[in-house]
Write a structure and sequence with these properties.
- The longest helix is centred in the C-terminal third of the chain and has 30 residues.
- Helix content is 73%, strand content 0%.
- By secondary structure, the protein is mainly α.
């Protein structure tokens, strides 16, 4: 299953699933698919009454956030963000890439729709890195490093936005129970590190993780935060083991299924000019807002920190990162679902805006990056391949 870990494959699966969902939703099968998405089990599961679509967004997607949190912890402790000096530039660039799209969105939409401002702030790690791997293999490794670090910080900001702005009424007792379950998961992880390969410990960790997810889901906080908390506290040995085992499932099932469900919307039969401001705001904010915010903030951060010239990105390289950063997709679709869950019209147009904005960013970013990559010698490609293999071997050593 090593092929499914390839970022190019992951990006293609995501795009293919989204296109398939959009196509099916606009055929004779569309009404049946919509009914299936909104179908509820005839009984509650642990007190939860969720539609099939919500089992994907509130259930399966937790696995993606769990793996993302493991990646985030690794980068903060051992990777691209392990030191303050290395983290400053991508952090400032990410903040610029969040602020500019949000401002553009709020400028375009009327005040009653401003709850959708988080939709265009996201960068899809899998998709953006997949496009870069597809067309930018000759680029210096510092380009991938900045895009990866920026996307990870962007995800962290997105997680905080979900926790703060999309939390309904809080059940403090359930939240306290979830905290206890997360602490128990951490303790089991430490025990697993000492007794690696213990099946009773693995079963106990899965059981405690499910309890934590259920408690978070019933507490009023979005269930994906459970995956973030569990991935963040897991100690390195079991964390890397879990990432290696779950990555094929995330790339091959969780993300494509989510993309299929989220993108399966019927295109409204109205003239293009009559689409709501939500569609146009997202369409503009994703490619344009990310380009402006990341490039300006990134350039300013490099200058302000006096980054060594050998590590600094030239303006064309920074523009490539900024353009690819406009591919929102997965997290943007989730933000759209959370922002307009109770407004079907805006939910549909928001989804179309995310798909269109991400596609524009991907096409322009891929074209610009491919042209830029032609300026670099092919020898860099082999250096990057060797680096990636060494990094993978180091991370999986002892798993």
């Amino acid at each position: 299953m090593t092929w499914i870990r390839n970022p190019q494959v992951s990006a293609m699966l995501l795009l293919g699933a989204a296109v398939l969902g959009l196509v099916v939703a606009n055929t004779a099968l569309g009404p049946g698919l919509d009914a299936a998405k909104h179908w509820h089990l005839p009984f509650e599961v642990l007190g939860l009454d969720l539609s099939m679509a919500h089992w994907v967004t509130d259930g399966l997607l937790v696995i993606f956030f769990f793996v993302a949190a493991i990646e985030l912890r690794y980068e903060l402790t051992q990777g691209e963000l392990a030191s303050v000096r290395r983290a400053v530039v991508p952090t400032i660039a990410a903040l610029g890439g969040v602020a500019a799209p949000a401002i553009i969105f709020l400028t375009i939409v009327p005040s009653e729709l401003d709850r959708g401002w988080p939709i265009p702030i996201a960068t899809d790690i899998a998709f953006a890195l997949g496009v870069l791997a597809l067309v930018g293999r000759r680029l210096p490794s510092r380009v991938r490093a900045l895009l990866l670090a920026l996307a990870i910080i962007d995800d962290l900001i997105g997680i905080l936005v979900i926790a703060v702005f999309f939390t309904t009424s809080l059940d403090l007792l359930a939240l306290a129970g979830a905290a206890v379950a997360v602490a128990a998961f951490w303790a089991l992880g430490r025990a697993y590190s000492a007794r690696r390969g213990s099946w009773p410990l693995r079963i106990a960790m899965v059981a405690v993780a499910l309890v934590a997810w259920w408690l978070v889901a019933t507490s009023g906080i979005h269930a994906t935060i459970a995956g973030v908390a569990l991935g963040a506290v897991l100690t390195p040995a079991p964390a890397e083991s879990a990432r290696v085992k779950l990555e094929p499932t995330v790339n091959g099932l969780v993300l494509p299924l989510f993309a299929f469900v989220a993108a399966s919307v019927a295109i409204p039969q109205i003239p293009l000019g009559e689409l709501s401001p939500v569609f146009w705001a997202i369409l503009v904010a994703l490619p344009v807002g990310k380009l402006i915010g990341i490039s300006i903030a990134g350039a300013a951060a490099q200058a302000a920190t006096r980054m060594p010239r050998a590590e600094r990105l030239a303006l064309p390289e920074l523009l490539a990162v900024a353009l690819l950063g406009g591919i929102g997709f997965t997290v943007s679709l989730l933000m759209n679902e959370l922002a307009f869950r109770d407004a079907e019209e805006f939910l549909v147009e928001g989804t179309l805006g995310v798909l269109a904005g991400s596609l524009v960013a991907a096409l322009i970013g891929a074209t610009f990056t491919a042209l830029l990559a032609r300026r670099y010698p092919a020898v860099e490609t082999e250096a990057i391949r060797v680096r990636d293999l060494e990094e993978q071997a180091r991370r999986t050593d002892g798993v």
